[in-house]
Design brief:
By secondary structure, this protein is mostly helical. 81% of the residues lie in helices and 0% in strands.
């Protein structure tokens, strides 16, 4: 970690040039800086991880709220409400400028918007046909595949395999023990497609975060995604989208499932490699199962608990691999 040590460098020169009587003060300042360095280093290492976990929790509560809207507006209508409300909120908060960007910058935003529209559209088509737990489990296979493809470290193959074992185990016994065999084929296909778009979302979210300040790129991409989803939502739901109670729930879904988690993930991807972020996404089925137990009173079996433990162990291993890679003196 070079960043925490850089601010201390200018103070070293004056301390060396100062009279001998000033040495105790300089030593005290150096001691304070040395004591603060481990805290800054820990925050830099685990801060992005906390952002990803918080985003996952927010998404799962947003998904639960979206289930309440599905009978009123349909899957496409929920997607339109979610993306349109999120786009309005982000555009008002960020007020992104539209001038001064290159053609490549706009191409990145457009690609990011397309992946968000596809990811949301396919996922809600999936949960309209199959339970939420298996849908999330199938969807998370996309980021897992990305972690294997992108990573150049052999140890990440181990963490990806461990996480894959956990999500497969959870899918076989979660959601009432139905497993994959009883899933609607179309719903499973939509979930797998959402996983592919999720992997693309990780890539383009990182690129957008590097090209645009703050969350400006996210706001612009969300507007693109909302425009793409609007025709399908209007066609399926029609005037039901304008019912006040449905609109209110849609805003809640937008904040919990789009505005908050996408912003947190965008910030995290500026400091996490795509491979580590992808393995952390394996926490999603575990968070969903925990939310089901706490909110919906869905009991967890011993096999479910073991599956969750495997997924969390894989995520912790990915985090430790990342922190070791960033520590000076260690070889990748």
């Amino acid at each position: 970690m070079t960043a925490p040590s850089e601010p201390a460098a200018p103070a070293a020169a004056p301390a060396a040039a100062a009279p001998l009587a000033a040495a105790p003060q300089g030593s005290a300042a150096a001691a304070q800086a040395a004591a603060a360095a481990p805290q800054d280093s820990a925050a830099a290492r685990f801060g992005p991880v906390a952002l990803v976990v918080a985003a996952g929790v927010s998404v799962q509560f947003g998904a639960a709220l979206a289930v309440m809207i599905m009978p009123r507006a349909g899957a496409a209508g929920v997607v339109t409400l979610r993306l349109a409300a999120a786009a309005v909120v982000l555009l008002l908060l960020c007020r992104p400028r539209v001038r001064g960007y290159s053609r490549a910058d706009w191409g990145t935003v457009l690609a990011f918007g397309v992946t968000m529209a596809g990811m949301n559209g396919l996922f809600y088509q999936a949960v309209d046909r199959i339970p939420l737990g298996p849908a999330v489990t199938l969807e998370v296979l996309g980021p897992l595949a990305l972690s294997v493809i992108v990573s150049r470290r052999l140890v990440n193959l181990l963490w990806a395999g461990l996480a894959l074992g956990g999500v497969v185990l959870l899918s076989g016994h979660g959601g009432g023990g139905s497993g994959f065999g009883s899933l609607d084929p179309a719903g499973a296909a939509f979930a797998l497609g959402a996983g592919v778009m999720w992997a693309a979302y990780i890539v383009f979210s990182a690129r957008t975060g590097r090209r645009f300040p703050q969350a400006d790129g996210l706001a612009l991409a969300m507007a693109v995604a909302a425009l793409l989803s609007l025709p399908l939502g209007v066609f399926e739901a029609g005037s039901a989208l304008l019912v006040p109670s449905t609109l209110a729930l849609g805003i809640g879904v937008a904040v919990l499932s789009s505005v908050l988690p996408y912003t947190l993930e965008l910030l995290a991807l500026r400091r996490l490699p795509a491979s580590t972020f992808a393995i952390l996404m394996s926490l999603e089925p575990a968070i969903a199962a925990t939310a089901g137990f706490l909110v919906l009173h869905q009991a967890l079996s011993a096999v479910d608990a073991l599956a969750i433990a495997l997924v969390i162990a894989a995520s912790m291993g990915a985090v430790r691999s990342q922190t070791r890679k960033r520590t000076p003196g260690r070889t990748p």
